[in-house]
C-alpha cells in the first residue's frame, strides 16, 4: 500500500484550505460534512464559498497564503491554481509535520482524500493511491448500488444495542456470530424498509431468545419488472439475493429468476391463462406457512406487483396473519414496453393522459367503460388483451374511435425476443393472424403509436442467447 487508510476526527479542529475556487469549495463541502472548523485563505472566493461564509459555516482571510496561516491548522489542503503557491503550502506544512493534501498533485501530498460512500455513520472509502481518481469514482458508483441507503440507520441500531449484546454474549466469538446473523436478517430489512420500531422489537426478541432471529420469517413481494434484468431495482436485487425461498410465476423472465440466490428453493406457482399451477388462496397460504417456518420468502412477480398482479390480495392474507412483509415496486409492462418500443405513453401533441386497463376476456366480453376509453387525446394500454383483441377493436370503433387509430402490439417487451407490431384498428387483426405474436403481449392504442417509427431505439439481437429471455413455463395470454 502506498497510503495508510485512516479516518480523521476533524470535529472542532481547524482545517486550513488555501484557495477560493470551485475545487476548494468541493473540499470544504466534505470537511463540513465531517463537522470540521474551516478557515479559507484566498484573495477571492467563488460563489459557493461566499455562500458558506455568509452562513457562518467557514471563516476567511482575504489575501495570499502566509506561513503563519499554518499556526492553528490541524490539517491543510492546498487548492489554488498556482503551482508555486501549492508547492510552498505543501513544503511548509510538511516542515511542521502537518498532514497536507495538494489537489491533483499526489507528489506534494502526505494524505489523499478517497472517493467515499456516505451512509453515516457507515462510510466506505475507495482510493487508487492517486493513480486514477476517475477509477475510484467508477468503483464507488458500483458499490453505491450494493450498499442500501438505510445502512446508516442499521449502524445506529447496532450502536444502541452494543452494550446489551456485550452483556448477553461474554465470549467475543458468540458476539460476532450474533451480529453476523442479525445484521443480515429480517431485522436489517425492517430497518431498510423504514419499520424501525418493529426492528427494535425483533432485535430485543432475538436478544432474549437463545437463537439469534425472532423465529418469524418474512415475505418480500418483489416486482421483477417486464423482463430485462437490468430494470430491477437495487432493493429487488438485494432481497432476491437474500431470500431462502423464491415463489414465482409464469411472467417472471428467466434472466430475472437467475438473479435470485443460487441455493434458494424455487417454487413455481404457475398462473398462466386458464391453467393455474396453484390457486390464489393456496399461494397466499403458502407464503404464510413459509414465513411462519422462519423463511425469508421472495414472492417474485412479473412487472409491478400492484398493477394487475394480485399483490394486494397476497399481502392482505399476510397482514391478517401477522407476517411481516414489504412490497418492492417495479417497472410495469406498460412503461417497459413503451420505452423499449419507442412509444411515449403521453405526449403534449397527442395524449394528455394514459389509462391502464385489463383486456382479459371473460365469457366472451370485456367489462370496461368503453365510452371513456374512446375519448380523444389519450393513450389506452391493454394488459392481457391478445385473446380479446377482436372485442377490444369492435368496442372502441362502436364507441366512436376511428378505424384508422394507430395501435401497437408489443410481444415480450424489454427482452431479447421483443417484437413490435403496429397498424390501425382496422388493419391489426390481419397482422396478428399473419405474425402470430407470442405472449406476453401488451396493446397500446392511441396517436402516440405513430411516433414509434421515429423513436424506436431498442434492437433485439439477431440470434437470441439460449434461454435468456423466454418466460418461465408454458406460455399463454
Ligand atoms: C397478469 S398481468 C401482470 C402485469 C404485471 N404485474 C405488470 O405490472 O406488468 C400480465 C400481462 O402483463 C403484460 N405483460 C407483462 N410483461 C410483459 C412483457 N414483457 N411484454 C408484453 N406484455 C407484458 C401482458 O399483457 C400480460 O398478459
Structural notes for this entry:
The protein is of the alpha/beta class and 477 residues long. 35% of the residues lie in helices and 17% in strands. The chain has 17 helices and 17 strands. The strands form four sheets. Strands 3-2-1-4-5 form a five-stranded parallel β-sheet, sandwiched between helices. A hairpin with a 2-residue loop joins β6 and β7.
Brief overview, please?
This protein has 477 residues and is α/β, with parallel strands linked by helices.
| First and last CA, distance | 59 Å
Q: Which molecules are bound besides the chains?
A: S-adenosylmethionine
Major sheet details: 5 strands, parallel
Mean pLDDT: 90
> Which segments are poorly predicted (pLDDT under 50) over 5 or more consecutive residues?
463-477
Q: Pairing-aware structural class of the strands and helices?
A: alpha/beta
Q: Counting H and I runs of at least 4 residues, what is the number of helices?
A: 17
Which shape, going by the Cα principal axes? globular
Biggest sheet strand order reads 3-2-1-4-5
| Rg result | 30 Å
Number of strands: 17
Q: How large is the share of residues in beta strands?
A: 15-25%
Helicity level, as a percent range? 25-40%
Sum up the structure in keywords:
about 475 residues, alpha/beta, five-stranded parallel beta sheet, about 15% strand, globular, disordered C terminus, binds S-adenosylmethionine
